[in-house]
Structure prediction request, 779 residues.
Amino acid sequence: MRIAKTRIGLVSALILLLQACGGGGSSGGAGSPAATPLPTLLTISLAGAEADVAAPVQFENSAAGLTGLRHEWNFGDGSSSTEARPAHGFAKPGDYEVRLRILNARDEAKTVTLTVAVNNKATVRDQICSGANQSGWCFQSPLPAGHIVTQPQLLTAQLGWALAGDRRLIKTTDGGRSWKVQPIGSSGKLERYVFTDANLGWALGTQGQVWRSTDGGQSWAAGANVPFTQLESDKTLEAFDTQLLRVGNAAGERFASLDGGASWSRISSPAYLSVTTAAGLVFARTSENNILRSTDLGLSFSAQGSLPQECPGDRTDSFLADGESTLLLSGWADLISGPYSHSPVTASRWFCRSTDGGKTWRVAAGKGLPERDHIRYWTPGLWSVEGVLWFDWGQLYRSTDGGENWAPVSKPDLGSLTLTALGASAVMLTDGRMSVDAGQTWSALPGRPVHSARRLDAQTYQLMSSGRAYLSSNAGQIWTPLFEQLGDGQTLGSLGAIVSTPANALLAFNGAGLLQSFNAGQAWSSRAMFPFGNSASLQFASATRGWLIAGYDELFRTLDGGVSWSRIWSASSAAGLPPFSLQVSALQFFDESNGWLALQTSDFASAIRQSRDGGQTWSARPELPLAEPALLGLDAETLLAGGRDGAIHALGASGEWKLRFRLSVGGAIKRLVRQDAQRVWAVGSEGLLLSSSDGGQSWSKQDTGVSTGLNDIRFADDKHGWIVGNAGLVLATLDGGKTWQRQESATSDDLLSLVARDAKTVWIVGSWGTVLATGTGGF
Prediction:
């Protein structure tokens, strides 16, 4: 029995062994599953063009279509997945190392990694940016503050467009209170644009590119490039209907399109004295006094009629169209008042008018106009609007019967002025006067001189004066700036500091006004006004507690995140001196309780004060042998100070200042910033960048490759950092400061301060109220 049991046990063990090895079958193992071979190349890709924190990222991989494989994803943010094609939402912008490991049935594995840049473009939605598709640095002041604005065009009191910044198209639908960028792909700079109605418009690029929009500028389709040979010349763009376009440049090149910009033909007709109607009809006068007509913008002409002898072609200075068939030619006739060639010369005016498109002409008497001396040196202004003629003949005149009779119009006694006629009864003068009742009364305009003016309807007018655009919706009684800007309607002065509180609020300070935004800089509001002070002094130690210096020596504090501020200390009052006798040149708080400040006492030294109660009281510390220092508190007892002589001093528990570093060649240190417990940075004049890896004990100089003054440096983490400087300089690092690369900021303004919320979301402020933002880390 024992032998039998042993044999049975051996047989059972053998059967189990064969099964485990895949044997025992009649086919010799052919029925067992084979392991899927691993692909030679394994790659990760994104289903979309880029990743953004606003939406889940759809991941693909080159092995996703193979069966018999397991997928192990690690997204670099603590999350994972076993799907072949997972969709993952990142909670925070940044650069993530995504790792995929695939395994087959034999547990053979292959791994691949991909660094995924997760952007935050919602921060800069609809802004003017230095890169395509809302990348790079974007102007985030309420548009178009901080920008040069040109070519404003309103169709109604609410709807209009303009070119802003680096010649990008912006649009308003609320009369200029807010603006949005109208992206035109990778168009770069625009030269001109035009809209014929609320939907149809064209844009002309500096290189002759043409785009067409049928939805008010929301989307654009490329047309044919205009074959300019002189691309550097200033260009013009006109649209007359859905198909007729004309472009030109300062070099005299002219082209016409009869198919909405799909093709272009060169206009090579002689440079006759000509006029173009609103519908695109071109009328021209030849040297033989014949009138020609063109329906293709001057590509070809047909004869219309001839001028009478009373309208001499060699003495014509004005050719006007009023509507599509009424034409007016005007010139002068010399009247020599003596028998000699040097006798005084006076002149009278003649007018020839046609109401049938130039086929027949009638000479108008011009009664009521005086003779004038020295006519050859006089350039008259003649306008024909709604059947009424306006004529600046030294005195302002008006005719309602085609030039037969003229009546003087009363105008302010302001000397010789250029007029712009806007209607049968409305006229503007360059010196800033307007009349809407044919000169019976005149009102002052908001600026002068008036460079251009347009009437949109009976009540709505637009004008440009001294580089600013204005809009009136009540026939000129009240004018408002078309481009609303920060503050009181004027561009702000320098914004010297910006902070981001833990409550996700942004605060910026210009020394007098505090600006606040609760929606990532999309809109700003003024929170408080102060006696003018130190624009770089604004700082927060927590979500609620912050400080700033105003009035030169007054310390203000907030305990509610910047909603309200109170003055808690004055250096002059504490010293028993009259107000503003002392000046606080630097302020630095290490935490909610511990802070330092510097009082300027001479050109070579500063008095140092320390507070341990949040700024309510201050005690004297040893004098610092530096003027206007940059301060950085490392802890409650240790203070670093950098100065204009390129020296860095340290004050510790010993109560003595010790020199830590001095440049061998002069240079000013403007800002000291702590990256982590040991890493400290200093920036200054002429591209100066210093770093310390031991808490400020020793320093080394880094080559930035620039000679521009540097004003601030900040880091989002151990790898991502930025430096800002004068003349629009922005430098960025992706390796913790080992190397730096220059970024395009699209501004030449001095950039003074920055704050980084994460590796992609950063704000910069500077001179002229400049506010820049990025949702892509500036790249």
Observations:
- The radius of gyration is 37 Å.
